[in-house]
Design a protein that fits this description.
The protein is of the alpha+beta class. The protein is built from 4 helices and 11 strands. 19% of the residues lie in helices and 36% in strands. Strands 1-4-5-6-10-9-8-7 form an 8-stranded antiparallel β-sheet, sandwiched between helices. The two termini are 26 Å apart.
Length: 192
Amino acid sequence: MTLVAGVILVQLVSRGQPEPGTAEEKKTVIKNEVTPNSTRIGNLSANVPDNWSAVRPSSSMRLMQFRLGAPADDATLAIFKNIGGTIDNNLARWSSQFGYSLSDSEVNIRAEVINGMQVNIISILGTYTNTMAFPGAAQPKLNYRLLAAIANTPDGLYYFKLTGPNTVITGRLEEFSRFIKSLRYDEIGKKS
């Protein structure tokens, strides 16, 4: 009995963790026998699509990172927590990475309540310039798309930023929507 409990605990703790990386990005497809494709993101849990791969975050600011499709597709979901600024500040920054302001018609924003959390969702199509990249590395990318969400939880804001070529992201709209709608807040160690 103790052996079985130990094996289950090891699987739960290691589930969804990216493999130690080298200079080359390593991938881990997240699997969970208890609830298929469920993973923990801070104090949130979410159902991750089968074809998303957890990868080593490319920045220490990122809580987690997923690759959608092949590396050549250049579609990445970066997840951040409490990165500073208000919800509107971050939505405005993301809009400016496409050369838009929040009031432009090309910027689609909506607010929803998902599993008791206020979630702001933004979608933009256009020329993307990663203003957070190292100087000289921020090359404009034509026909790119942003799908992003900011979840307001009791322990702060969680940010989900999916960027990539429009042709790739358009094929992932339903996956992203199901992923965001599966988010549930479940504080570790809270008393019932």
